[in-house]
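Input record (one chain):
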Amino acid sequence: MKILKFLPLLVLLPFFGCSSSDDEPTPTHTEIMYFPNNTDNNWETKSIASLGWNQSAVQPLKDFLAEKHSKSFMILVNGRIVMEEYFNGHNATTTWQWNSAGKTLVSTTTGIAGQEGLLNINTKVSQYLGNSWSSEPLEKENLITPRHLLTMTSGLNDESNLVIKPNLTYLADAGSRWSYSNVFQLLTQVVSKASNQDFETYFNTKLKNKIGMDGFWNFGTIFTIYHSNTRSMARFGLLFLNKGKWKNEQIINENYVNEAINTSQNINPSYGYLWWLNGKSKYMVPGGQTVYQGALVPNAPSDMYAAMGAEDQRIYIIPSKNMVIVRMGDASDPQNPNFALSGFDAALWDKINALVK
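The corresponding structure, as predicted from the sequence alone:
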């Protein structure tokens, strides 16, 4: 993996909207949250004019997205589509890869298995995979729990992206080192063993089908990647905006959602359970051990959290605005297809802020 370098980012004008005097931000407006049907392509919309947004900023945003090799872009407010744009021959039914943004699907499926009593994220991984699933000494292997895999703190050697036993060697005690790596993939094996079925079957039954997503998993030799259309990505974002509830069904319990989207360890406070978190005091990035001071994306709302994948696949969720934003496409900078955070985030939020202020 490459070590990412970041230039200081300017903090832009505050995002639109007001905050209430109590602890909860005031929603953008008071309309009832909308959920699309699971059985057809109908989806309610909301006009930019009705929100009082800056119409003149729409075209610059679309031009920027096209210039940066985007395939699709969506904004939801209270579940309704405000913008849905496709570029370069992509359309509403075309599938595209989530890359590492799909880690959040693995995290969620793990949480569902936990709430069903099939696994406990705080017990050792070997309870599900058996002893000697790694090449660590047994006493070190036994320190590793599913929670360490969810938080990128397993302590396993991260030199290779290929998750096979010979590469799973000891580097540090579990919980003592944060490092972004492919080791999270072991969670799919944990869920499979715990549920006594293959991971994709369990995922489809417990998550995908319940919220009307399309798509499929590609379990490659090195990478485990989900593919879907853009609206399916937006559906998943909407599920999390609503703290794991879809219409009248709590798909994933709210306690787990809150754990997943809050600081999961104090080494990298900007990381939850495979989710990236904005508004924290410092952050780390894939490919290195450098700690950067400040927020992940300083010009985005501080309560934003995100699924981030290579080549700038994104789901941004902003609870204070009841908003979900999705971007899919090729890398914004083809010479630097970052694994997660990139300079694209700040540049895109510059355009979004101009629209919604």
